[in-house]
Design brief:
CATH superfamily of the largest domain in chain A: NADH-ubiquinone/plastoquinone oxidoreductase chain 6, subunit NuoJ
Order of helices and strands of chain B: HHH
Number of domains of chain A: 2
CATH topology of the largest domain in chain A: Four Helix Bundle (Hemerythrin (Met), subunit A)
Number of helices of chain A: 7
Strand content of chain A: under 5%
Number of strands of chain B: 0
Radius of gyration of chain B: 17 Å
Structural class of chain B: mainly alpha
CATH class of chain B: Mainly Alpha
Distance between the termini of chain B: 55 Å
Oligomer: heterodimer
Shape of chain A: globular
Number of helices of chain B: 3
Chain lengths: 162, 106
């Protein structure tokens, strides 16, 4: 189990570094897919197979595809050389400091725990439709609003095209 | 049995990588991908804590999984809207380089 965790976390971190380091934007999207699938494996290690399925379906099936569509429609592969900011060393220092601070605070506040427990589909469904029913409905409303907003923003102006 | 702190440190590293991407990249699509990495880091943290503890404060068992589901929902809505904004930006200005979209800078 520990070996599997080390392999999966190494793959996800390497994928993340690929996303922020590669010069080719299509490669960045594929590195993101690699990292997200490794994270789905980590959900399986935590005995949360429902979240692993959702991760593969939504991130692998929808979000990365939408990102690839955005890259194609903005002709991102025609000019893959949009460089990084001039202040990238500053960003590197800031993010390393963030990683150190977060890791040290996690390390020093860790306590004894009961170990990964299996989260069954029925448990998650029960909780989602009883205790979290109203936030669930609000989430569906947010999806509807985002859908309509995306259509309104992205549609072409009729006076431009006619 | 895996200690909880390993998962937390993995999420901290992924979050820092995503933060670097948001700060250092100039293409709006790459910034969006980095935001996805940061959201996933938060999800790992939520699910690891929810799987390792019976409850924490007013949160009972499985609440972390539910919050992770909500984060995935919000991320899907956010990517759809952001793609619409990026397409509109590209159509109006011909670029997705955020350092050239300075019309709201004073």
């Amino acid at each position: 189990m520990t070996g599997l965790f080390i392999v999966l976390s190494a793959v996800s971190i390497l994928g993340g570094v690929g996303v922020v380091a590669t010069r080719n934007i299509v490669h960045a999207a594929l590195f993101l897919l690699l990292s997200l699938m490794a994270i789905a494996g980590i959900y399986l290690i935590l005995f949360t197979e429902f979240l692993a399925l959702v991760q593969i379906l939504i991130y692998g099936g929808a979000i990365v595809i939408v990102l690839l569509f955005a890259i194609m429609m903005t002709r991102g592969s025609d000019y893959p050389r949009i460089s990084d900011n001039r202040q990238w060393p500053l960003a590197l220092i800031a993010s390393i400091a963030l990683a150190v601070v977060l890791s040290v605070s996690f390390w020093t506040t860790s306590d004894t725990v009961v170990g990964p427990q299996h989260a069954k589909f029925s448990d998650i469904g029960n909780s989602l439709f009883t205790r979290w029913a109203i936030p669930f409905e609000i989430a569906s409303l947010i999806l509807l609003v985002a859908l309509i907003g995306a259509i309104v923003i992205a549609r072409s102006n009729s006076e431009d095209n006619n | 049995m895996m200690p909880l702190v390993y998962f937390q440190i993995l999420s901290a590293l992924l979050f820092a990588i995503g933060a670097y991407g948001v700060l250092a990249r100039r293409s709006a699509i790459l910034i969006l991908m980095s935001i996805e990495l940061m959201l996933n880091a938060a999800n790992i943290n939520l699910i690891a804590v929810a799987a390792h503890k019976e409850g924490l404060g007013s949160f009972i068992h499985f609440d972390g999984h539910i919050l992770a589901i909500f984060i995935i929902t919000i991320a899907a809505a956010e990517v759809g809207l952001a793609m619409a904004i990026i397409l509109r930006m590209f159509r109006n200005r011909g670029t997705v380089d955020v350092s050239e979209i300075s019309i709201m800078k004073w």
